[in-house]
Amino acid sequence: MLSVKDAESIVLNLAPSPYSQRDVETVDLLAASGRILAAPVTSSLDFPYWDNSAMDGYAVRFADVENCTDKKPIALDIIEEIPAGYQPQKTLQSMQAARIFTGGVMPPGADTVVMQEETRREGDRVFILVSPSKPQAFVRQKGAFYRSGMPLLNPGTTIDAPEIAVLATAQCVRVPVYRRVRAVIFSTGDELISPEETLTAGKLVDSNQYALTALLAKMGVKVIRLGIIPDKKEVLTEAISRAVSEADIVLSTGGVSVGEYDYVENILAELGGKIHVRSVAIKPGKPLTVAEFKRDSKSECLYFGLPGNPVSALVCCWRFVVPAVRKMSGMGEENWGPEFVQARSKAELRSDGKRETYVWGKLNLVAGVWQFEPASGSQNSANLINLVNTTGLAVLPAAAETWIWVGEFVQVLKIS
Ligand code: AMP
Ligand code: MG
């Protein structure tokens, strides 16, 4: 049985990063939202594009007004009005000013803006009542935020609203992104029916397929669902064979324990998969099985045989699958996660130390301190009911019996 740490590094090593050009596609600006940037973006433009005013006011020469006060205002002749979007036509000479508005381009000869509130207008003259703090006051200088040719966005960046704004500003309207990860998801088990079917004696509604699909779809993964596959070796072989030929990643649930009908591991081996993980010292989630299928030198499939119990399946996904998918999506390593925080426990937590134990519950930031409250009711891997609103998994280490008292700190995996 592998430790969680070892299983994690095996899984992350196996998860392929997107390969070169084959895995890159170019999409329109807004379609890039939520995708991962696949190539560096630079711009030949400075930003701001030109010196411009940060205020509604007057463009002046600092030397003309540096000594004025409201008792000794200085009068300047207004030679031009510069609204946003207008190209100044005149050069400012000594004792002249230009009326300027926020975003207006600074006229040649001017080096400072005085805000409107610190002036008094009389016809074609303006009185400056307060001396500016320094030359360039309220001027947004060309290139102050970004110099042309410098890196603007790096590959691996997740494109969200701020990145869309930057891409638009750089006039990058076709954006290179990594193609979406393709997942095949299915459930195994003769007891399973789909949520639409009528429940009959002994049956159980398949919830895993829906939970896992929702989780991966939220991460931008393209999911193909194969439905419910019965515990029949030939049918299961066909499903697994199809899945590993089509997908970058396969998630199946059930059939990985030691029962008579748990065929998954044998089928994976028979189909040429290399099994890297057979079981992990994690609770819940012990039977997790991970195999690698190589299709050719540049294409492979990572297979996760997840336990059937709904909580076990999700815990394994949060702990192992999510970081692997992030890597496969092309995200930078610093964002693969999982993210852990130290949180004060609001209840006593116990484990026998035989396996690394994950307790589900709510993680909240209260007055700057993380607090963890385990879900009330049974912490049983079949109890998907009290899994709702889970935002954290407290981690109790393997190897020693652990007892966390109320108010003590515990490591918690954040679930976003
Ligand atoms: P297994 O790993 O196949 O032995 O399944 C373990 C437990 O999880 C059994 O009680 C199953 O009924 C339950 N289970 C298996 N698959 C699912 C599923 N897709 N949705 C909900 N529960 C499941
Ligand atoms: Mg089963």
Question: Can you describe this structure?
Answer:
With 416 residues, the chain is an alpha/beta fold. It has four domains: 4-21 and 179-335, 3-Layer(aba) Sandwich (Molybdenum Cofactor Biosythetic Enzyme, Chain A), CATH 3.40.980; 25-45 and 159-178, Molybdopterin biosynthesis moea protein, domain 2 (Alpha-Beta Complex); 52-140, Molybdopterin biosynthesis moeA protein, domain 3 (Beta Complex), CATH 2.170.190.11; 340-414, Beta-clip. The chain is built from seven helices and 28 strands. The strands form eight sheets. Strands 7-4-6-5-9-8 form a six-stranded mixed sheet. A six-stranded mixed sheet has the order 16-13-17-21-20-18, with helices on both faces. It starts with a helix and ends with a strand. 37% of the residues are buried. The mean pLDDT is 96. The site of magnesium ion has 5 residues, from loops.
Strand and helix layout:
Elements: H1 4-14, E1 24-28, E2 41-42, E3 52-53, E4 57-60, H2 62-65, E5 74-82, E6 96-100, E7 112-115, E8 119-122, E9 125-128, E10 139-140, E11 151-153, H3 161-169, E12 174-178, E13 182-188, E14 192-193, E15 204-205, H4 208-218, E16 222-229, H5 233-246, E17 249-253, H6 264-270, E18 274-277, E19 282-283, E20 289-296, E21 299-306, H7 310-329, E22 340-345, E23 349-351, E24 356-366, E25 369-374, E26 392-396, E27 402-404, E28 409-414
Helix pairs in contact: 1-7, 4-7
Magnesium ion binds at residues 188-189, 254-255, 308.
